[in-house]
UniProtKB/TrEMBL annotation:
InterPro entries: DNA_mismatch_repair_MutS (IPR005748), DNA_mismatch_repair_MutS-lik_N (IPR007695), DNA_mismatch_repair_MutS/MSH (IPR017261), DNA_mismatch_repair_MutS_C (IPR000432), DNA_mismatch_repair_MutS_clamp (IPR007861), DNA_mismatch_repair_MutS_core (IPR007696), DNA_mismatch_repair_MutS_N (IPR016151), DNA_mismatch_repair_MutS_sf (IPR036187). Residues 699-715 form the DNA mismatch repair proteins mutS family domain. The lineage of its organism: Bacteria, Pseudomonadati, Bacteroidota, Flavobacteriia, Flavobacteriales. ATP binds at residues 625-632. The gene is mutS. The keyword Cytoplasm does not apply. PANTHER family: DNA MISMATCH REPAIR PROTEIN MSH1, MITOCHONDRIAL (PTHR11361:SF34), DNA MISMATCH REPAIR PROTEIN MUTS FAMILY MEMBER (PTHR11361). Belongs to the DNA mismatch repair MutS family. This protein is involved in the repair of mismatches in DNA. It is possible that it carries out the mismatch recognition step. This protein has a weak ATPase activity. Keywords: ATP-binding, DNA damage, DNA repair, DNA-binding, Nucleotide-binding. This is DNA mismatch repair protein MutS. GO terms for cellular component: cytosol. GO terms for biological process: mismatch repair. The keyword DNA repair applies.
Length: 877
């Protein structure tokens, strides 16, 4: 049977043609007063928006699903669609339907995607909304060492960033900047997934967009420069390709007004403390494992302005390693702590400075409302006293901020002169432009307000002429202005009045005079609106020339806000000024965990602890202690104190002297980690391996229960081997190693810079009291059973476990274990000298063939394990 050809209505034909251009977007199709969605888009939209799904042309050949909402609700529904991860193409009517011949012309006016959003309901005030692009470069020395370019752009603020590096570095940046959308060239789809995982919202573009000459051209055209030298990025080939792709995507999504993207900033790898993705997550800087738990940023954010909030996140992502810059921030914080009055005065002004960075971007994109322009002016006015206050101080950094702040006098004056202070959000509401600004406007307005007097006079006159006392003049949408006469006076109505409507009790008439009056008033109102719109758009266009100075002010206020916030944080929580120097030692006296100390039940004090590490005497600390005793807290607080100090904040400690730290690594043993599908142990080993390959003299390494993802002896061996490696490594990185394997305490006998500490507990009869104090010395045995008891495990289980533990301890004393390790060493040493046995020949072969230069630590461990197994097999045989 021949297939029926579906008959398309002209509207659906138009719809299908537009939809075909945006196949991967949800198309909002404007029909009259509604935005409609059709077919699969309608099914999706109805689910996300919880709106009714109906059928169009039910029963006919062209039956299709339909769901829509009134056009004025776009700001309610659009954010929901975008937050649900949709790309939304907004298709509007491009001509006045009344004047259209045939079907109304329609076209997509904006493509809103998660990474390209300007709508306040989609954006978070204290977070950036980044669009990113990643470009995989040609391979350099090895496959794992490929250069990858990355670029981030927040179209709502105009910030545009560029960088490039190896996969690990780009991964760290992606973790820090957490883009809402990542652009990748189609052929690199799998490469991206394999390298960076599947957590990102990705969009795949044609490969030709990712070509360096096209990208360079796009950037040069945007910035209207001859080269990229001025930005200091010209040699970042992969980065440039990524940045070009980002700009290309903006034009593809119909974002053409981009003059607020005034520069591109390079993120330089060596200017900031390095933290990889595991560290960022383990330290719970922005996100915690438990969705609702408090994070570091929650605790330390005392900023007032949205720009300040966003900058604080940036500072946390990129702590400094430049001593002078760090000290400068500390100086300012100290200054504010010493002078609470000036701190309050400045903060009081910052309260009036709203999001000038996003406001000025809205000027560029012509999306700013009259009320927002007034807000911009008020914000700039608050900057005037801040400039004066900071310039007057004797603090150099503050003076510099004060000197750099732009007064924008002309801009403020012009806005003040043009707009009414109470200007509305929507210009159509009227009363936007000040009457003093335009004499025409003033006249027209007085005409429309004098109208009431005119009508009153007319009413009085007509009452007198007709002798009707209850006359009323009013207006409605149908008949315009009319005179209303109650039926009782009907006979007194003059001949020349024209009857328009009869009600139950009254009749409504119009007169020549009323009609004339109406035309005049309506004409005036229309004209007022037209003048207001024209003057307002002229104003917005004119403000465009102030984008750079306002952006500069925004950046300076953000800095000031962060520094004031640090002072307040320090004041509220007794943080002290850390001393940062060029040594390699870390000396923290009575340090606290900034987040946990805020979370403890009322009245329960946080027990502060000392931590000392250096590269000479105390490079590695083995911290033993039962579960829940506070080992992880000590590890994390040490890292957080260093981080806070180097981002410019004071720290939760009585005293801290910190040798500049350039890298912080933390690793948590498998059972603390969220399983990633892969063998968790393998994951743990891979993660640890990447530390061992990257350590430097200034690194701080925190290992939490590494090795517990496997059987006890494997775990101990691996923990032992890793510690040994760190100890023997020429960089001698400062390390804290938390473990419940008390067997590792034996290491101090062999390795001079390893020291044993434990988190003290008081053993009561059948219980443990956590003292949470870090004290010198190792632990004798594990305490897991006590914790099980506290957790409410049944008596029999506890009893039985105690018995088993005693037996095990008898049969595997730690001395025995150490002996075992030593015997193994001796065995191996012996065997290297007596290579006459065929097995040993084989082992010799294995070892000789190992290429130490390319061997990763994990591979080394595995090789060792293989050899050990061969030997044990032989022994058993
Ligand atoms: N110094 C401290 N003062 C007060 N309470 C603390 C302190 N350290 C830790 N705690 C409390 O003890 C809890 C457990 O601490 P933590 O997770 O550091 O223990 P742990 O020894 O690492 O345990 P596990 O081995 O199970 O990971 C914390 O959540 C906190 O509530």
């Amino acid at each position: 049977m021949a297939k029926k050809v579906k008959k398309e209505t002209p509207l659906m034909k138009q719809y299908n043609a537009i939809k075909a251009k945006y196949p991967d977007a949800l198309l909002l199709f404007r029909v009259g007063d509604f935005y409609e969605t059709f077919g699969q888009d309608a099914v999706k939209a109805s689910k996300i928006l919880d709106i009714i799904l109906t059928k169009r042309g039910a029963g006919s050949d062209s039956e299709t699903e339909l769901a829509g909402f009134p056009h004025h609700s776009i700001n309610t529904y659009l954010p929901k669609l975008v937050k649900a991860g949709c790309r939304v193409a907004i298709c509007d009517q491009l001509e006045d339907p009344k004047q259209a011949i045939g079907i109304v012309k329609r076209g997509v006016t904006e493509l809103v995607t998660p990474g390209v959003a300007l709508n306040d309901d989609i954006l978070h005030s204290k977070s950036n909304n980044f669009l990113a692009a990643v470009c995989f470069g040609a391979s350099t020395s090895s496959a794992t060492n490929k250069l990858i370019g990355v670029s981030f752009l927040d179209v709502s603020t105009g910030e545009f960033l560029i960088s490039q590096g190896n996969a690990e570095y780009v991964d760290k940046l992606l973790q820090n900047f957490r883009p809402s959308e990542v652009l990748i060239s189609k052929p690199k789809r799998n490469a991206f997934k394999d390298t960076f995982g599947t957590d990102f919202h990705t969009f795949y573009m044609e490969d030709w967009v990712f070509q360096d000459d096209y990208a360079t051209e796009t950037l040069l055209k945007h910035f209207q420069t001859k080269s990229l030298k001025g930005f200091g990025i010209e040699e970042l080939y992969e980065g440039i390709v990524a940045s070009g792709a980002v700009l290309h995507y903006l034009s593809e999504t119909q974002h053409h007004r981009l003059q607020h993207i005034t520069t591109i900033q390079r993120i330089t790898k060596n200017d900031h403390v390095w933290m990889d993705r595991f560290t960022i997550r383990n330290l719970e800087l922005y996100q915690s494992y438990n969705q609702n738990a408090v994070t570091l940023i929650d605790v330390i954010d005392r900023t007032i302005s949205p720009m300040g909030g966003r900058l604080l996140k940036r500072w946390l992502a990129l702590p400094l390693i430049d001593l002078d810059k760090i000290n400068q921030r500390h100086e300012v914080v100290q200054f504010f702590l010493d002078d609470a009055v000036i701190l309050k005065k400045i903060q009081n002004q910052i309260k009036y400075i709203n999001d000038i960075e996003r406001l000025i971007s809205k000027v560029a994109t012509v999306k700013i409302s009259p009320r927002e322009v007034v807000q911009l002016k008020n914000a700039l006015e608050a900057i005037v006293p801040i400039k004066a206050l900071t310039q007057k101080t004797d603090n150099k950094a503050l003076q510099h901020i004060g000197d750099s702040l732009e007064l924008c006098e002309e801009l403020r004056q012009r806005i003040k002169a043009t707009l009414n202070e109470e200007a509305p959000v929507n210009i159509l509401k009227g009363d936007t432009i000040s009457s003093n600004f335009s004499s025409e406007l003033k006249e027209l307005r007085s005409l429309s307000t004098s109208g009431k007097d005119y009508l009153d006079a007319m009413l009085q006159r007509e009452s007198e002429i007709t002798g009707i006392t209850s006359l009323k003049i009013a207006s409605n949408n149908v008949y315009g202005y009319y005179i209303e006469v109650r039926h009782s006076h009907r006979d007194k109505v003059p001949e020349h009045w024209i009857r328009k409507q009869t009600l139950v009790n009254a009749e409504r008439y119009i007169t020549e005079e009323l009609k004339e009056y109406e035309t005049k008033i309506l004409g005036a109102e229309e004209r007022i609106l037209a003048i207001e719109q024209q003057l307002f758009s002229e104003l917005v266009l004119w403000i465009g020339q102030f984008i750079k100075p306002v952006q500069k002010n925004s950046a300076l206020i953000a800095q000031l806000d962060c520094l004031c916030g640090f002072a307040q944080l320090a004041f509220e929580n007794r943080y002290t000024r850390p001393e940062i120097n060029e040594t390699f030692a870390l000396d923290i006296k009575n340090g606290r965990h900034p987040v946990i100390e805020k979370q403890l039940p009322l009245g329960e004090p946080y027990i502060a602890n000392d931590v000392y590490l250096d590269r000479e005497k105390q490079q590695i600390i083995m911290i033993t202690g039962p579960n829940m005793s506070g080992k992880s807290a000590i590890l994390r607080q040490t890292a957080l104190i260093v981080l806070l100090a180097q981002m410019g904040s004071f720290v939760p400690a009585e005293h801290a002297i910190i040798g500049l730290t350039d890298k912080i690594f933390t690793r948590v043993g498998a059972s603390d980690n969220i399983s990633m599908g892969e063998s968790t142990f393998m994951v743990e080993m891979n993660e640890t391996a990447s530390i061992l390959n990257n350590i430097s003299e200034r690194s701080l390494v925190l290992l939490d229960e590494i090795g517990r993802g496997t059987s006890t002896y494997d775990g101990i061996s691996i923990a032992w081997a890793i510690s040994e490696y760190l100890h023997e490594h020429p960089s001698k990185p400062k390390t804290l190693f938390a473990t419940h394997y008390h067997e590792l305490n034996e290491m101090t006998e062999t390795f001079v810079r390893i020291k044993n500490f434990n988190v003290s507990v008081k053993e009561l009869k059948n219980n443990v009291l956590f003292l949470r104090k870090l004290v010198e010395g190792g632990s004798q045995h594990s305490f897991g059973i006590h914790v099980a008891k506290m957790a409410g495990m049944p008596q029999q289980v506890i009893h039985r476990a105690n018995k088993i533990l005693k037996q095990l301890e008898k049969s595997h004393s730690s001395e025995e274990l150490t002996n075992k390790v030593r015997t193994l060493e001796n065995d191996m040493q012996l065997s290297f000298f007596n290579l006459d046995d065929p097995l040993l020949e084989q082992i010799k072969e294995e070892i000789v063939n190992i290429d130490i230069d390319v061997l990763t630590p994990v591979e080394a461990l595995m090789k060792l394990n293989e050899i050990k197994r061969m030997l044990l097999k032989k022994k058993r045989a």
